[in-house]
Design a protein that fits this description.
With 299 residues, the protein is mostly helical. The protein has one domain. It is built from 16 helices and no strands. The longest helix is centred in the C-terminal third of the chain and has 28 residues, at 267-294. It is globular and about 50 Å long.
Length: 299
Amino acid sequence: MTSTTTIAAPVAVKEFIGLFKPRIAFAISLSALGGMAVTPGLLPEAWQVVVLAVSVFLAAGSAGAFNQWAESDLDARMARTADRLFASGRLNPGTGWLSIIIVLQAIAIGLIAIFLNGWAAFYTFLGAFTYAVIYTLWLKRRTSLNIVIGGLAGSFAVLAGAAAIDPMFAVEPLLLAIVLFLWTPPHFWSLAIAVEEDYERNTIPMLPAITGNKLCARIILGHTVALSTLALLPAALGMGWIYFTFALTGGLIFTATSVRLVLETSKRRAIINFLASLGQLLLLLTGAIVDRWLAGGLG
């Protein structure tokens, strides 16, 4: 890699934003807010909540950019990712870009440490480190447990939100962190079934390429049932009916599409299950935030 940050061809704003994987960053940021919402205690000031959300988004986004920077060679060989900026050569993945990514990460962690607390900053850092280094550099090309351990990135985001209220965690955010840990593998494995040939051709040990799609679909269903059940428990510990309704609805939808994936293990069903997993996460975290807001905690 060279030390430049040159742009080899015109790059649209949308493509440049995509370098930071904004959808993943949004999900991670929402996870932090969900962790805050389920944690008993006095919430920070509204501006501090905004600082947390924006900073976690920035930390996750810079980790996503590092993922594309570090995997530009692999991305270039995969149909799904070959058009990414670093992979296509339209951005030169030099060390200058790595410096920019590191600076953005430092700004995100620093903002949380200054305006919230050190524990929230530490967990935010652990989430970004898990995705950028542990998953991307150490595990992805070596073991089928890559995305299982990589799922801790979302869990650390939940803990960051909880630590913004109280570093001594209550049961509720710990449960939600476990749910996020269980959610990430079936979410990504569903996508991996749909693009299995890419991983097989490049000898990346994603679970479907190791076990076969049928067995992987059954493992996905097991994860889905477990996380959907655990997601209901915070309602028994103080969360209200809105949280319960959203968690139950999302869990039922994700479980139903996972059952269909077992019965018909096709690329189409895998994509439907992938989208259902996103819907389940959105419903779960939105339910937590809305429940806390209507209870007067976010007003």
